[in-house]
Amino acid sequence: MQDARVSQPPPGSVLLAVLTLIQFCHTLDFVILMPLGPQLIRTFGISPAKFGLLVSAYSSAAAVSGLLVAIFIDRLERKTAILSLFAVFTVATLFCALAGGYESLFLARILAGASGGVLQALIFAVVADVIPEHRRGRATGMILSAFSIASIVGIPIGLFLASRFDWQAPFFMLVGVCAVGGFLGHLVLPRIRRVRSQEDSRGGWAELVRLGSVFGVARHRWAIMLNLSLTFGMFCFLPYLNPHFVTNVGLPETEISTVYLVGGLFTVVGARVTGWLADRYGKLEVFQVAALMAIVPILVVSHLNATPLWIVLICSTFFMVLMNARFVPATAMMTSAARAEMRGAFLSVNSSLQHMAMSLAALAGGAVVEWGGTQPGQIPMARLGWVAAGFGLLTIPVARALRRRIDADEIN
Fold it and tell me: What does each C-alpha distance from 128 to 135, 174, 196, 318, 337 come to in angstroms?
């Protein structure tokens, strides 16, 4: 089995803070587009399905680049790989800010996805290299709290800037945050290099064979299945949530930021608590409870009609907290499933397929939205809610199979 050499690792809390900041940047870049949906649909004169295509452009590019990078990712020194990709991602975000129309924004989103989509795999590879397994739940919870921080800070500020200036303003803001993240990453990230084996000197063909061997490990396959079922169920639903709130529920666009602010505050706390519970009581046990509980707010939120803001806040907050609570123990299990000698390749493939699922889910959700049978101007979120709930139930037996496979490999 191969190992990784870590030179001068910083204190764990400092390293996790910087990794969380980098995760925050590429997470905000992805999620900021969804609350901008009503404004972009109006500005560009596009349909909800075409907006879904804009969302899927990021994920599709991330899926392709993840598979390509997985061929050689374990040859790369982790710090150099993260900072290089983050620099490309920052430039791509600047291109988003400078985009003058739908087509140019679409191309910029492809570049952002091709670079930003691989960053998550590298971040969790560093976590797996540096953080011991018994602390990985809390570390994963902190990294994944980037989504909540984006909801609390990034999305409300971004929506305020978009309403005060234009839709490009949030991307200009993000470019500045990326510059800070890149500087701190240069100072803090340790150099982590995999110990090379004789296999590494055989060239590209051996790397392709090794990439194929990722799927030859049973626990890798179950981890990928868990990731795909979680992701598809979430992203056939999530891109259309804000148009649903505006069109079906009747919220003004100015109140969408309040939904993210309140939900994000509770989700930050929930992510940390879920990570602690996962380390204390077991990742599978916590995941199963969260997955079952998440079914309720999915169905409630998707069936809302004209509703006062305070009721929407209660429902959307439970939705955000429980959806995120599923991902914390699930990601910790998937990270633990990675074989050390192919950790980078597995996490990159897993991230790539996750983004592919995001893309397909957004397109499938768009097809459901365009399907007739609803009142003019209405978005059929109830249909998407049932699909998301079904995939949520599917994740439970898949997670149980993954846990059994991990435990069996540890015994053997």
Answer: 10, 27, 18, 30, 10
Amino acid 126: pLDDT: 81
Residue from 54, 39, 153 nearest 113 by CA: 54
Here the tokens at position 201 are 């000197």
What three-state secondary structure class fits 6? strand
Q: Are 137 and 279 in contact (CB under 8 A)?
A: yes
- Report d(CA 111, CA 90) in Å as an integer: 10
pTM: 0.69
Q: What is the mean pLDDT of each run of 10 residues along the chain (412 residues)?
A: 50 79 85 78 78 79 77 72 90 89 89 83 78 70 71 74 83 92 87 55 52 77 91 83 84 80 82 84 91 93 88 90 87 80 72 78 76 60 88 92 81 52
> What is the pLDDT, as a whole number, of residue 288?
94
Rounded-to-integer distance, Cα 263 and Cα 244, Å = 17
Half-sphere exposure of 272 (CA within 13 A, CB side): 10
Cβ distance 79 to 191 under 8 Å?
Answer: yes
User: What's the chain's length in residues?
Assistant: 412
Q: Which pLDDT does position 148 carry in this prediction?
A: 66
Three-state secondary-structure class, residue 371: coil
Q: Specify the pLDDT at position 198.
A: 46
Distance between CA atoms of residues 238 and 220, nearest Å: 26
Domain extents in the chain: 8-189+196-411
User: Number of H helices and number of E strands within the chain?
Assistant: 16, 2
What's the CATH number for 8-189+196-411? Answer: 1.20.1250.20
Whole-angstrom distance, CA of residue 275 vs CA of residue 108? 35
- Contact predicate 373/238, CB 8 Å: no
CA atoms within 13 A on the CB side of 359: 21
Encode burial over 316-326: b for 16+ CB neighbours within 10 A, e otherwise.
bbbbbbbbbbb
Q: How far apart are CA 144 and CA 203, in angstroms?
A: 35
In this predicted structure, what is the pLDDT of residue 373? 47
Q: How far is CA 273 from CA 50, 253, 280, 302, 345, in A?
A: 38, 31, 10, 26, 30
